[in-house]
């Protein structure tokens, strides 16, 4: 999904106006034509996919409505779930775990033979669509956001680091070698490697194999993993390896465009951000991430239970997430497919003018195939934000890192009571 409005691209979201979906609930016209309303947000579904769906389901009237994404998205979507004016089909952001407690408000796609398509998708993404007992599937995957290292070629050259993507992938093979490269860049090029300690903490958070809450809802702080990534981000900050600009900001975009830091762990859709930020060809290139494989963003399509035509809506969702639709989404919007049928030789050999002759998709495919599903508690995002807020205070106000950690822990424990 796209990153510039990170609410959206961490996949994607629809939002205000949800209740005013118009033609919701699969109403039928005087000609008894099935009508289905589909709410999506900018960058979630390509125009070609929508046009093809209308042709494929010519006996239906499909009404696609683009909804703006903002901080109220989840609140308004959840509030609409019991509404007769809700859309038949809705996009859901990457935070699908927030909706699993509302599984009874969605059509169970298993009732419409969705399990026959399971082998078409990366397993972890498919698994994320289900309740813990695996008896209810509330959505189907659209895109994913596997990550790789986006590196600043000039900064690497000035620091005496490799500039070839294959050599970098071998040299920067773990978090220790990455921190050593950051040290070398500071000493030899007088440049920070990381955009900010916040972005570094966020990147490392996505690599954790456990969460702040375990699958039974118990507060575990990822059994030490959270403190490890906190200490890693603090080390980079205190060592002077961070620029200090926020990624989702004008200053952040400017720092990328001007190449003011060395590298960033970004999702596949970050390629579009580079283009929007006006970077020069071969200014930034792509290599394997030094961290454990991770995912950033990606969205889903679900059928709301108030739909009068759940069977037809389920068929449309299957179509909008199939191989051809996801290939069209990639070609038009750079949405990385969750449908593995797209991962053929031509897809692996895809190029982009920003990266010259480099074939980079294999880095994202490898990451996508290495990932495993880790169930997430609905409180996870709010809990992690406590640590995000505190790392900002460490970076911007010089707050003592241990006090910042303890303050974050205290707040998480209060909200977990």
Tell me what the structure shows.
The chain has helices at 6-9, 47-56, 73-80, 123-127, 153-158, 165-171, 175-189, 197-205, 225-238, 250-257, 270-276, 310-320, 323-333, 345-348, 361-370, 380-397, 401-415; strands at 34-40, 60-66, 89-92, 140-141, 143-144, 147-152, 263-267, 284-287, 300-303, 336-337. The protein is an alpha+beta fold. The longest helix has 18 residues, at 380-397. It starts with 5 loop residues before the first helix and ends with a helix.
Give the arrangement of secondary structure elements.
Layout: H1 6-9, E1 34-40, H2 47-56, E2 60-66, H3 73-80, E3 89-92, H4 123-127, E4 140-141, E5 143-144, E6 147-152, H5 153-158, H6 165-171, H7 175-189, H8 197-205, H9 225-238, H10 250-257, E7 263-267, H11 270-276, E8 284-287, E9 300-303, H12 310-320, H13 323-333, E10 336-337, H14 345-348, H15 361-370, H16 380-397, H17 401-415
Parallel strand pairs: 1-2, 1-3
Antiparallel strand pairs: 3-9, 4-9, 5-10, 6-7, 6-8
Helix pairs in contact: 2-13, 8-9, 8-16, 9-16, 16-17
